[in-house]
């Protein structure tokens, strides 16, 4: 017959495998990436000494204010993330823990990821050009737009590129700046018809925008709740669904109207 163990001994024996599992979890790499606020770039300005947006074939105007695209920075696919990193990121407002596949769905190597992000950026810039020229009823046969923004990939700057083109060509349509002289930031994809799409990481992007002087942030309407989660004090959120809604909101903001939407 087996002798019955005393309760303290039984608890001790059960605790051993639990402790072993916890120790393994603490030192085993996990399939996550840790993200934080990244750089922002003024699409109306210059990047590494060259204009971000260059337009030929149509008159352009001198702009004031800033339109800042925003980014996040995440640990690379080859960087090991451990339980301590996850716990630390969970309790910090300037960090976000994301499944690695959600951050890097396009490949396993840095080269594959960089190539994918570069392709997405090019597609985003092409869509931004078409959306802006369609909005202004201009032909891409006459007006040529080139964009250069080093060290940034992906499609999330599409909306800001589009607004930058419009501001350089027309402004608010009444002789004023689309920005109203403010520093305005935002994020969102764009397609040729002017529809704005969600991007992710917006709570970190609002922090990056605040750090770099923005007071207004354009956010895809579907991501309003995420943007409000860690919203910096003094930052005004404007939800957008289309290019027209973004332009209308900025014009209303510049004119001091009460029709500016909010999250």
TrEMBL record:
Name recorded for this polypeptide: Lon proteolytic domain-containing protein
Gene3D superfamilies for the chain: 3.30.230.10
Organism the protein comes from: Streptomyces colonosanans
One annotated GO molecular function: ATP binding
Signal peptide extent: 1-28
Tagged with keyword Transcription regulation: no
Domain Lon proteolytic: 152-244
This protein's record includes keyword Chaperone: no
InterPro entries registered for this protein in UniProt: Lon_proteolytic, Lon_Prtase, Ribosomal_Su5_D2-typ_SF, Ribsml_uS5_D2-typ_fold_subgr
Keywords: Signal
GO biological-process terms attached to the record: protein catabolic process; proteolysis
